[in-house]
Every structure is written in C-alpha cells, then in structure tokens.
Amino acid sequence: MREIVLDTETTGLSAANGDRIVEIGCVELINHVPTGRHYHVYINPERDMPEEAFRVHGLSEDFLRDKPKFSAVAGEFADFIGDDTLIIHNAPFDMGFLNAELEWTGRSKLVNDVIDTVMLARKIHPGARVSLDALCKHYGIDNSRRALHGALLDSEILAEVYLELIGGRQVALALSAEAESSARGAGNRPPARTRPTPLPARLTAAEKQAHAGFVAEMGDAAVWLKYETVEFEAQ
Asked: Nearest-CA neighbor of 117 among 93, 152, 141?
C-alpha cells in the first residue's frame, strides 16, 4: 500500500484571492513505513511575497525568482503522487491550493483519496490541540529543526505523527512485514526452518508396531509409507 505525505507553503491563505504555492514537499510511505523517496520543489509564484507569509516560511521573492513555475513542475508532481492516498495536515488548505494551481495550468483536479490528520487527531484526542507542533510534543517527536515552516521537513515530521496516530511504529512494521510476506507468494517463500534436534516420539513401541501392521495391509500404494520413511530417517 502506497501513501504520500504532503505539505505545501504558499504566499498566503487564499488561492481565490491570488495567493500561490511556493513549495511542495512529499514523502513516500509503503505500508505506513517511509521508503526514503521524496519529492521536493520550490516554485516561483509569479507575484510578491507578503511579509506575513515570509515570516512563516522564510522564502523571499529573491530566492524564488529563478525557481520553476508551477506549470513546469505540474507533470512531475502528478507523476510522483500518482493515484495514491494523500496524507495531509489540514487537507482542505493544501488541496484547495493544489487544485487551483492545476486548473490554472489546464489540468484536472486531484481525485486521490485524502486522509486529513487534523480530523484524525481530533477523533483520537478530542478537545486537545492538534497542531503539528502540539502532536509532536504529545508523541515525543523531535521537531527542533522546525524553526520555520518547510514543506519537506513538515512532511517528514507529519509522517512520524501519522504513524503514531494509526497505532505506532510497531503496528506499522507488523503491517509491512505481513504485506511483504504476502507479496512473495506461496511459491517464493523461504524454506521452513527445521529443529536442530527432532522432538522425541510420543508413540510407544507397541503403538508403532500396530500402526506398521495397519499400513502394511493397505499395500505399497499407501500414502502413509512416505511419512513412515521420513520418520525412520529422522530417528
């Protein structure tokens, strides 16, 4: 199962008012475990950078001036996320901006399934603060690098938070191991381990003799002969 943890940074709060995306960060999860693959890009918003937004993420007009426009990266972004589930903190915000940018470039809106970790956290911790920083504090996740918001860093941190919200690292590793075993298929499974010392027989000598007589009456085609041979060789 593939999921994409996603975050964006923008010039403001409303695409309808002309605000634009300036950074996208994505982290790939397979069976809830980060694979190390990610997608990250800075984007030229083709407009000024309001002071309020700059204080949030620290991305200036000068820094973004030579970065690609969204239209130039839309294809590679869409290829990376594919049709897999998106994990987003406060999903309506990011999805609203992404869909607006995609429409401005003549592309279709995203139809991916979305898990909003804000809503998920509110179900698990009703009444508690569910900001990313608050959840990091609750779960003991180190977010000391988060002096400013950054799309890739926030995606990496959100991946850890999401893992805790769905049950913790051990649950995710168990799911991953189970999925890997299933993917190998019955024909490709590694050979079963054998005991270095066979278990002692539970049958008495008299019981074994009675059983041998019973099998002998069934003739040479008796399937029991196969297992009798194995048992004999193991002793």
From this structure: 93
152 or 182, which is more confident: 152
Active site residue 149: yes
Whether residues 175 and 122 fall in one domain = yes
Let me know whether 76 and 157 are in one domain.
yes
Catalytic residue among 40, 89, 149, 211: 149
Strand 85-88 relative to strand 2-10, pairing: parallel
Determine if the pTM surpasses 0.85: no
The β-bridge relationship of strands 33-42 and 85-88 is: unpaired
pLDDT value at position 168?
A: 74
- Do 209 and 141 lie in a common domain? no
Show contacts of 202-210: CB within 8 Å, 24+ apart: none
